[in-house]
Design brief:
- By secondary structure, the chain is an all-alpha fold.
- The chain contains nine helices and no strands.
- The chain has helices spanning 2-39, 43-63, 68-82, 89-109, 117-128, 139-152, 157-169, 173-184, 193-215.
- It is globular.
């Protein structure tokens, strides 16, 4: 009996330690994404740092293959890296497809991971990449994912921000403006002040750009 109890305690301890390590690695990826995105101004330096961060995400995915949170952040990191390959379309499409696959896996493990942030990220990706046969872009799926992300986090800054971009690109500027303005007042994940300030700056630029479209 004592042996069984001891084995159970060891198992519970191992699971707890593993879960704690997963949280630490997730926070590490998120913080580095924040710092590179909003703490480095030089695009060339950003690109190099995101390439390094993608390699780290690769490693953590192998180490924690069942973590929805790590998959979610890995997908976000890959998709951000892909944005730096505008002059290398095959490379960009390869990396963005990798991002989509990892985000799909995250949702399969936990549909509500990052409070719907994965749906919002997927929606933005579907709206921006080329459609078939070149890539997986799909405006209908994009809107579906973006609305799902908003459903799971209706007051979230990012959920509203990404949906606003979709409507802007569809030239529905009035609807876009309403979501941009809502996103500016939205809730941002705690302990990410640098990213929050940087995102609000981006939203302000979009608001002015959208207003100019409406007034013209």
């Amino acid at each position: 009996m004592k042996k069984i109890i001891f084995t159970l305690l060891i198992t519970i301890f191992s699971i707890t330690v593993h879960a704690a390590a997963t949280i630490d690695k997730t926070i590490e990826l998120q913080k580095q994404w924040d710092q590179i995105s909003f703490g480095i101004n030089n695009k060339s330096d950003q690109k190099k740092e995101f390439q390094k961060l993608s390699e780290k995400a690769d490693f953590y995915l192998k180490e924690y293959p069942n973590s929805a949170e790590i998959k979610a952040w890995a997908g976000i990191i890959y998709s951000t890296e892909a944005s730096f390959y505008k002059l290398n379309i095959p490379k960009a499409l390869k990396v963005i497809s990798k991002a989509k696959d990892v985000l799909d896996e995250a949702i399969m493990i936990n549909p509500e991971v990052l409070k719907g942030g994965v749906y919002s990220s997927l929606g933005l990706m579907y709206s921006k990449v080329p459609g078939k046969p070149i890539s997986f872009g799909d405006k209908v799926l994009a809107k579906t994912f973006l609305l799902k992300g908003l459903e799971l986090n209706s007051d979230g800054m990012i959920a509203n921000y990404f949906l606003a971009q979709y409507y802007y690109n569809e030239k529905d500027y009035e609807t876009a403006l309403s979501y941009f303005e809502k996103s500016k007042k939205g809730i941002f994940p705690p302990n990410r002040e640098v990213a929050k300030v940087g995102t609000i700056k981006e939203i302000n630029i979009w608001i002015e750009k959208t207003k100019s479209q409406i007034w013209n």
